[in-house]
Amino acid sequence: MVGIGQTRYYKRGASPDPEFKMVLEAILLACRDAGIGVEEIDGFTSFSNDRNDPPRIAAALGLPELRHSTMVWGGGGGGGSGAVANAAAAVAAGLAETVVVFRGLAQGQFRRYGQGVRTGRAAGAEAFTAPYGVLSPAQGFAMRVRRFMWQHDITQNALRAVALTSYAHAQRNPRAVMYGRPLTAVAYDASRWIVEPFHLYDCCLENDGAAAVIVTSAERARRTRQKPAYILAALQGSGYRQAATAHNAPDYATSNFKALAPRLYAAAGVGPADVDVLQCYENFTGGVMMSIVEHGFCRPDEVNEFFTPENFSFEGGNLPLNTSGGNLAECYMHGLGLIIEAVRQVRGTSCCQVPGAKVSMVVSGPMVQPVSSSIYCAEPTP
Amino acid sequence: MRQHRDDVNRSDQDCPSEHSGRRYYLPAGLPAPAADGPAAEFWAAARRHELVVQRCPRCRTWQWGPEHICHHCHSFDLTYERVSPRGTVYSWERSWYSVHPALQQAVPYLTVLVELPQAGGVRMVGNLLGDPLQMVGIGAEVEAVFEDHHDADPPFTLVQWRMLDQPL
């Protein structure tokens, strides 16, 4: 991974530019960062049914030839690392040489995710949720998290630690939408419920912006401007019938990483103890909680002790977490911002740099189907 | 003519809820269930105040939500079977933030996920009737309450739930 680009991040509705224009800007920024010519790009991957069509992007940029474009199905940020996997696979298979992973998301110009769908009739799976007032993503995930917390006697403080961590790290990141707006434990406790067990600060932001990263071969990467982040592994997937409708996934209280995490570590040749810094997708803090458990960083019965802001701090924490402020406090770019931050940690250029970080991991989109994760390294092999 | 929340302080045999004297647990105006496809038989049964679950007649696997195919033996010839309208609370949530215009005056409200042990452990989403601020215990026994929306066009019936130890 050789280039990273992100537009200015705005509160939803505040961007002066349309979404497609922001995508183009993010791609140009990533090329500039890498020191490669825009005309070298010959492939695109994205996720979450991104509206910005690669053939149109290629035409707008005047690219000589488009050789590859793929989409990871599924909503939310579950496909973030999966889009990296598709880019890496395309390069490895010789389908393309320089692939852009991108996401454009201007919620102010389209639909806000935090609002329910406005239809007169709920069809398909929604017929079993929408008439009962289960309309938003927060409402779709709260019962998974509640069940997990009940099973393992987990207190609200575990969720709070995730929120406090993101906000603390965002205070050092001038790009963050919540830069200059610190969060205290008192303010978290006093904040309104959205849907129990989620307070306001347990929920991701709604933003306008775009982000892009560039994937190319290790051989080409060595001739770019930046220190490359080598992709040790990137995988997507989903457990047994996780997409069963009406909340009927047989294993319910899960982030959906139980099957994927062992495959990821085996492919990367590292284990959780080798990970120096983690960017873990916060659609909601409860998803971070289950993801950290399912990626083997602590057992369920250790969550209450393990989940503290100190333990997640870039300054001496055992598991430095979401060091840019993440989806809660930097920007909700469907987690592509987390991948960019993982690259920065490998380069050594984060606002919350973990000293000597070598192995940098990303968890994309817990509780959706599919989900994905990825591991990056400062060297080609761990 | 749709019934609105403000004109409901009246006795009604169909009223399943004491939630602020509402006719329905949640106000009219939310999306109504489209009673079509493999789900049609479920919604037709709910109109008759019967709880049914999809079941494969070949391998006897219970299945919910409805699908076109049995996930176990891949038979397309699925049928519905009537089950006892009882279950246990598998999980729950209390919504405080209105995400739909119809819900502006309806928060907070409770949603439960109910497990049906007599139907292979499938689960159903519904509202928990009664005080929206009540304590909800995972594992508590609940009973289905059929909430008729006779005045909707077309009429439909939602399957709601009430605690067995808290009679209405």
Summary, kept brief:
Chain A is α/β, with parallel strands linked by helices and 382 residues long. Chain A has helices at 19-34, 54-61, 80-92, 137-152, 156-170, 185-190, 218-221, 260-268, 285-294, 303-306, 326-330, 336-347; strands at 3-6, 10-11, 43-47, 68-72, 98-106, 121-122, 193-196, 198-199, 207-216, 230-237, 277-280, 359-364, 371-377. In chain A, the strands form 3 sheets. In chain A, strands 1, 2, 3, 4, 5 and 9 form a 6-stranded mixed beta sheet that branches. Chain A has a 4-stranded mixed beta sheet with strand order 10-13-12-11, with helices on both faces. In chain A, strands 7-8 form a two-stranded antiparallel ribbon.
Task: Report on this structure.
The complex is a heterodimer of chains A (382) and B (168). Chain A has helices at residues 19-34, 54-61, 80-92, 137-152, 156-170, 185-190, 218-221, 260-268, 285-294, 303-306, 326-330, 336-347; strands at 3-6, 10-11, 43-47, 68-72, 98-106, 121-122, 193-196, 198-199, 207-216, 230-237, 277-280, 359-364, 371-377. The mean pLDDT of chain A is 96. In chain A, helix 5 (156-170) packs across helix 9 (285-294). Chain A is of the alpha/beta class and 382 residues long. In chain A, strands 1, 2, 3, 4, 5 and 9 form a six-stranded mixed β-sheet that branches. In chain A, strand 3, helix 2 (54-61) and strand 4 (68-72) form a beta-alpha-beta unit. The longest helix of chain A is centred in the N-terminal third of the chain and has 16 residues, at 19-34. In chain A, 31% of the residues lie in helices and 18% in strands. Chain B has one domain (16-163). Strand 6 of chain A pairs parallel with strand 1 (32-33) of chain B.
Which key phrases capture this entry?
heterodimer, A: 382 residues, alpha/beta, Peroxisomal Thiolase, Chain A, domain 1, six-stranded mixed beta sheet, 18% strand, globular, B: 168 residues, mainly beta, three-stranded antiparallel beta sheet, disordered N terminus
